[in-house]
Amino acid sequence: MTECNTTALPFQPRGWREIVAEFNGEMITSDAGVLLLRDANERLRPISRFAECFGAFRNPDQIDL
């Protein structure tokens, strides 16, 4: 049988809100993975680093906004 981990996992606070993941198995949501992705992106910046690999080779004089 699987043992549940009841230790709380704190995240960086957002403004005045404290964000804590608790693994007690009660109310479960599938949206919590987004918090993990956001924190990982803020720490490691993989999306920004990946975007830096590409350059824009367009002529600015020929771009209509």
Structure write-up:
With 65 residues, the chain is of the alpha+beta class. The protein has one domain (8-55). The chain is 28% helix and 9% strand. It is built from 2 helices and 2 strands, in the order ββαα. The protein has helices at 33-44, 46-51; strands at residues 8-10, 20-22. Strands 1-2 form a two-stranded antiparallel ribbon. It is elongated.
Helix content: 25-40%
| Beta-strand content estimate | 5-15%
What structural class should be given to the helix and strand makeup?
alpha+beta
Distance between the termini: 60 Å
The value of Rg in angstroms is 20 Å
The best one-word shape is: elongated
Mean pLDDT: 79
> Uncertain spans, ≥5 residues at pLDDT below 50?
none
Order of helices and strands: EEHH
Number of structural domains:
1
Number of strands: 2
**Biggest sheet: strands side by side, in what order?**
1-2
Sheet having the most strands = 2 strands, antiparallel
Number of helices: 2
SSE arrangement:
Layout: E1 8-10, E2 20-22, H1 33-44, H2 46-51
Antiparallel strand pairs: 1-2
Brief summary of the model shown:
Helices cover 28% and strands 9% of the residues. It is an alpha+beta fold and 65 residues long.
Characteristics of this structure?
two-stranded antiparallel ribbon, elongated, 65 residues, 2 helices, single chain, alpha+beta
